[in-house]
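Researcher: Please translate sequence to structure tokens.
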Amino acid sequence: MKRRFSLNAFMHNRTASLIFSIVVAVVIWGAVVFGSPTLQERQIRVPVTVDLTGSYAESIGLCLVGDNEFSVQVQVSGRWTVISKLTEEDLRVRAEVSTINNAGKQTLTLRASRNSAEDDYEIDSILPDTISVVCDYWDTTEFSVVTNLNGTKTTDANMLGTPFLDTDMFPNGKVKISGPRSVLSKVASVQARITNPQTIEQTSVFDAELMALDADGKELDMSQCEFVDLSSLNIKVTVPVEAVRVIDFHCTVLNTPAGLAELGDKLITISPPSITVVGPLANVETFVDSVKNLTTIDFDKLKADNLTQVFSLNLPASVRVLDGTSEVSVSINVEDFSSKEFELPIGSTLKNTKLLNVPAGMQAQALSTTVKFTVIGKTSYLNRLEPKDFTAELTLPDGATAGNHPCSLRIRITDKRYDDFKNMWVYYGDGISCVVTLQ
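Model: Translation complete:
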């Protein structure tokens, strides 16, 4: 008798159920893998690097400014068994840089291609299909660095000196910056700005930050630039504190003719009459002491062509004059003065010779001679003088004993003519002497 098939019995048969499940799974897998031609889609994120190497843009000196690394979504389609295994390394996306021929913002078209042996799929699209980059010329420019004290100050008795930057970091006080031409062309100045300003009484070192400013004094974004040879924009600035002193010049006057002495302060003009100097305290004080008495004017040694004298201040390296003065002039306020030479015979037998300071009980005799001397005075008066208008005075030294003595000689204008010639003087140079014998 033929046995009837029972589904219930089949389902409760473990061996039969296991075999049936395997067969069904194989059939379904085969249907998916081999049976259906339907294509699947997938998006893969792929990096894009823009490179100008070998391009026309590179040949004319252009370079990329800002980002040159991007990522895009590449959509592919194909059998799932193929596209499911694809990674970013199987694809290549490049930017068309051949269109770049000038500086500025550029929109580049993207192209995707296969980058491995697997090629049983299609590249459908790129999202986005363009990217934007900025190109510019790359320049290097040197700028002077100016210190911005940013409110740093000192006490009233002093002043701040010229700040110092590290000479190793800033040779000649300058810095080189490399960057896009469009950025460097906007740089009007480079400053080292003190970050923590204070009131100081002595030389101090401050932290400062380096920054570039445009013509309006606004800080520029220099993130695309490089400060050459600087590892950091945080630097040190040394701010000196200097002493301030006002020097009122004066000079010492010797052997002034009586007529000129009547002029008082109007006799001499010092120009400038005073200066203000600054520098390290000790150096300033030493300099002040050395120049406040500018010179000694001795009329015995003053020639007609030397009535105005100019003195160089010879400033120490660390001391300076605020207004830049480097010379001071001293002038004798007389007009139309010249000089004239005279010869005068002298001797004990002559009435024009006087012996002074002769010791009591001794006799003095001046050896006869003729002396030459120069008189300085108003030209019109000089031409009226004659040798008979002069008297020679020989003064013996204190405590002189018997014997010959060189005595200093002074020339006087005859008393009766004195009022007309009281502004004149005799130039003695290193002195005029004559021999006087004591016995």
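Researcher: Any highlights?
Model: The mean pLDDT is 89.
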